[in-house]
């Protein structure tokens, strides 16, 4: 439970900082940081159940689901692509169904 919530918050913060100015004193290059966010999205998508919820333990959680969907929305992913309203690149379509199912659950 705590891991899912923590990672969802971490992804939200990292996604919101994509446009931030690079820190020349940072030990980790920006490219590696973005790759880490991408792998977090992949992991988070794998934790979603078929009904669109994220679970805390074995129980679907509205809070964990809301934070997870917020992470995707904050990074610019949209469910409009999954509904067929917008044509988009493969990268944008990658998580559209995850967002769509998460919003449907909420």
Q: Quick summary of this structure?
A:
The protein is mainly alpha-helical and 106 residues long.
Instruction: Profile the largest sheet.
Output: 2 strands, antiparallel
- Let me know the number of strands: 2
N-to-C span: 18 Å
Q: What's the number of structural domains?
A: 1
What is the topology, as strand order, of the major beta sheet?
Answer: 1-2
Element string (H = helix, E = strand): HHEEHHH
Helix content: 55-70%
Based on CA atoms alone, the radius of gyration comes out at 14 Å
Q: Which class of secondary structure composition applies to the elements?
A: mainly alpha
> Which residues sit in consecutive blocks of at least 5 with pLDDT less than 50?
26-32
- The total of helices stands at 5
Mean pLDDT: 73
Strand content: 5-15%
Shape descriptor reads globular
Structure description:
By secondary structure, the chain is mostly helical. The protein has one domain. The protein is built from five helices and two strands; from the N terminus they run ααββααα. It has helices at residues 2-16, 30-47, 62-74, 90-94, 96-105, and strands spanning 54-56, 59-61. The chain has a two-stranded antiparallel ribbon with strand order 1-2. The longest helix has 18 residues, at 30-47. It is globular and about 35 Å long.
Summarize this structure as a short list of keywords or feature phrases:
2 strands; globular; two-stranded antiparallel ribbon; 106 residues; 6% strand; 58% helix; 5 helices; mainly alpha
């Amino acid at each position: 439970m705590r891991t899912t919530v923590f990672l969802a918050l971490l992804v939200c913060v990292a996604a919101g900082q994509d446009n931030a100015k690079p820190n020349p004193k940072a030990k980790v290059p920006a490219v590696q940081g973005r790759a880490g966010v991408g792998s977090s999205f992949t992991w988070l998508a794998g934790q979603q159940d078929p009904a669109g919820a994220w679970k805390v333990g074995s129980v679907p959680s509205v809070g964990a689901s809301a934070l997870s969907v917020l992470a995707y929305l904050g990074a610019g992913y949209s469910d409009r692509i999954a509904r067929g309203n917008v044509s988009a690149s493969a990268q944008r379509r990658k998580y559209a169904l995850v967002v769509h199912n998460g919003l449907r659950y909420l």
